[in-house]
Each structure stands twice: as structure tokens, then as C-alpha cells.
Design a protein that fits this description.
The protein contains one helix and six strands, in the order H-E-E-E-E-E-E. Strands 2-5-4-3 form a four-stranded antiparallel sheet, with no helix packed on it. A two-stranded antiparallel sheet has the order 1-6. By secondary structure, the chain is mainly β. It folds into two domains: 1-50 and 107-118, no CATH class; 59-101, Thrombin, subunit H (Beta Barrel). 9% of the residues are buried. The two termini are 18 Å apart.
Length: 118
């Protein structure tokens, strides 16, 4: 899986193939649509918009809080915490202010999958 800049976000290389049952909704909608009608042996690319993936980035899920609200004192960008808005990721630390983002890490990202059906 890559973004539109070619950055590798995840890979199944070296791992077992993903098994799923088509039509029960256990994949993001864009992937399910991309697999519709495909058969064993096919190789193809599926491009998934944010709306058919993990959703658009919602500005309302990004907030700034005081550093004093954290028991953990060694805060770092990328750390994740459970908050009332859900799992939130620290995206910025400036002086005594911490910016938290409760969007899914892939929200707002167009995704590209190279798929091989086995």
C-alpha cells in the first residue's frame, strides 16, 4: 500500500495472503469495490479515495491541550493516547501545548494497492 507520493505505508510482502469473504464489509469500501468481479490469478492496482478508505481528515478531531494534562512527561510526536475523542496521536509539541489528532492515521490519504489474487 502506497500513498500518491510513492511512500510505502504497509506491505504484505513476506507474510501470508489476506483471506476474506467478499460482500460482508470487513474491508474498506474502496477495496471491496476494487475486488468486485476479480478472479484468482489476476494482478491489478486499486486506487482508493479517502472517502472510500478511512475518510476525509476532520479538522474538528484535531485539538490542542496543555502538556500538564499528561502523566507521561517524556512526550514525543507520534505517541498515541486514549482520549474522549478516541485514540489520538501527538502531531506537534510546542512549549506547553500538545496537538492531538483523533483522525485515523490514514484519513485524508489516497491509497494505492497492488493486488494479486491467489
Amino acid at each position: 500500500m502506497t500513498d500518491n507520493f510513492g511512500n510505502i505505508l504497509d506491505t504484505s510482502s513476506g507474510r501470508d495472503a489476506l483471506s476474506y469473504i467478499h460482500g460482508i464489509g470487513n474491508l474498506i469500501p474502496g477495496m471491496e469495490e476494487g475486488l468486485e468481479g476479480k478472479s484468482a490469478g489476476e494482478k491489478f492496482t486499486v486506487k482508493i479515495s479517502p472517502e472510500k478508505g478511512y475518510g476525509a481528515k476532520e479538522p474538528g478531531l484535531i485539538r490542542q491541550v496543555s502538556r500538564t494534562q499528561f502523566e507521561e512527561q517524556d512526550l514525543q510526536v507520534g505517541m498515541r493516547f486514549r482520549t474522549p475523542a478516541g485514540i489520538s496521536t501527538i502531531t506537534l509539541i510546542e512549549n506547553d501545548t500538545v496537538t492531538l489528532d483523533a483522525n485515523h492515521p490514514l484519513a485524508g490519504v489516497e491509497l494505492n494497492f497492488d493486488v494479486e489474487i491467489t
